[in-house]
Amino acid sequence: MDGGVIKRAGVTSFQVAEHAGVSQSAVSRTFTPGASISTKTRAKVLMSAKELGYRPNAIARSLITSRSRIIAVVMAYLENLFYPDVLEELGRLLAAEGYHLLLFTGFMDRDSDPVFDQLMQYQVDGIILASTSLSSELSDECATAGIPVVLFNRTTERDSVSSVTSRNREGGRLLADFLVAGGHKSFGYIAGIENSSTNRDRLGGFREQLLVHGVDELVIRTGNYSRVEAQVAAREMLSLPVRPEAIFVANDHMAVAVMDVARYEFGLSIPDDLSIVGYDDAGPARWPSYGITSVSQPVNEMTSATVDILLDQIHSGDMEPLHRIVSGELIVRSSARQPAAGVIEIDGRCLYRPSPGT
Amino acid sequence: MDGGVIKRAGVTSFQVAEHAGVSQSAVSRTFTPGASISTKTRAKVLMSAKELGYRPNAIARSLITSRSRIIAVVMAYLENLFYPDVLEELGRLLAAEGYHLLLFTGFMDRDSDPVFDQLMQYQVDGIILASTSLSSELSDECATAGIPVVLFNRTTERDSVSSVTSRNREGGRLLADFLVAGGHKSFGYIAGIENSSTNRDRLGGFREQLLVHGVDELVIRTGNYSRVEAQVAAREMLSLPVRPEAIFVANDHMAVAVMDVARYEFGLSIPDDLSIVGYDDAGPARWPSYGITSVSQPVNEMTSATVDILLDQIHSGDMEPLHRIVSGELIVRSSARQPAAGVIEIDGRCLYRPSPGT
DNA sequence: AAAAACTCTGCATACGCATGCAAAACGCTT
DNA sequence: AAGCGTTTTGCATGCGTATGCAGAGTTTTT
Prior knowledge:
3 domains, DNA-binding, homodimer, six-stranded mixed β-sheet, alpha/beta, Rossmann fold, 358 residues, 14 strands, 17% strand, 434 Repressor (Amino-terminal Domain)
């Protein structure tokens, strides 16, 4: 009963070999780039393969090569359009290199263990961690297991694992310069997840540069990168007896929520009554209804750096952690009062680049 | 040289077996739910496994069971927040069932072949097609290959493959009722991808019901579900000698773009000068700055129906195509002039439910 | 024309696990 | 204590492919 039954989708290399009158090895070599095979037999095999509807079984191939050509991407949440954007670009880049993207999402801080287990079981070739809140043990453990890991938009203290970030500290400084130059006197900060490196750096740079300008007061509330928590934070901050003239919100995703609260719950006019600046230059920030003045994180540059590092490590087997830091720009829009000088237009975008002497 | 080398992460069931003093079969059975194994040996194996850091190799398991526990999700684009939302929920549901999500994105209409090849090679257990524009041949071909497929938010004429949609035709009708009841006299429609089923149905229902109200003129422009194309379409439509009083935009993603054009390029006040309604009730539609009156597509209901159907088909092997159609609500916000009657408030949401007799 | 240097090809094996089958161990009953 | 049924165990095999090795075939060199 094994000779007459035609299995649905189970065409194997043996059947193709038989049909083409060659050995199974020949079939395998036909589908292995760079293998030693003559043009003639290759053609024969390809013809038989097409006729039988054969496709190499990636699972079996993975088993023997111990390479799955699968990259795991771990993202905490997709609510923030910056991440879908990143995800799409990562997919594109990986596909171009013949890799595939296994998505893990929705795992915030706790419960990272099951995720990790899954990753390991699937023998993924590499891992991209774009989750701002995943325990750093996980990344260490992966590194130990010999699986290349790249942190996206995040770093750890111990630099045992590669990362790609933007100059968050400089971004924070630049925003401080911008707001001070714009004549603001009092400032607020709505934080992301407090122990995330991006949050620490953005706040650090902001506060540092405010100090340079002689400002040592900064009202802080926490929004944990969540829309609703940011709204709560905004309500608190705007209800203060004297509310800050300018608020730096740790990312655009929250900044949108904060703007909505300011406008529709407090009736404030932006930027006349209140200036708001954000970070990421993500989708909604660019929409005219928000027009958020924001420091950009260049998605293309960051994603391609990520994929480059990851694939390099996979192919070379070299585990030396690399850190790529890319530069963003302060993109000036309408959500914050502008300084008299320093705003220039390049390629249709308004940027803030204070002259060095100031 | 094979006996002394310790491979990085290559702990196999044999090594665990040896360490625990049992056979490899015992190890396998320990990690196979429902297999025949005594509590005692199971405990021994688990202990050894933990000590050696053993994890079953999912690839090898897949090879033998011919079940990968991987579901492919094909999405054309993530720019529209509705889809990231869906994606996240699908990930959650699949993870809960022990399945994983292989993401394919960025492939619009053409070039579906490579995607298909990849899918087949990875022996995915099922496919969720949330791409509004992928050729229907693909879905047929998968069905032929015996891989369960569910179309998400989309159907085909030949109902050879399962699908989950919402009542798009009814939604279109309801919007027509709503706008007519709101006193609008002239209407426009900004279309999605023209041959997509959702677009056809929404437009069909809208136009049909306008006719019922004696309106037979409808200005149509196409936005192809893309933000920039929707902007172009909006500019055209709003530049018309007599512009429509109300515009139905085929989804919220485009409606946001249209609102921005209307407000910031044409200086129109919404809803005083122009009413806009959308579809999906996606993220930005709910943000106060847009507040789009929109027919909802319940993400949770749709995703869980999708996963249910898919897993059912995988487990039963039954290929009978199922079609689940879920109901949405017309959620009333501020982007369109409201009718005098029919708007009711339930659970803090304003809905439009015209009394049947009208 | 023979030898040398390549290029192809098939054979055999291994990757890590699941599972049918038969033997062994166990728990009860008579 | 022997017989029976039930659970547990190990053996052996197979899933579909890649690849080292040796032999066959082909081209180049002397």
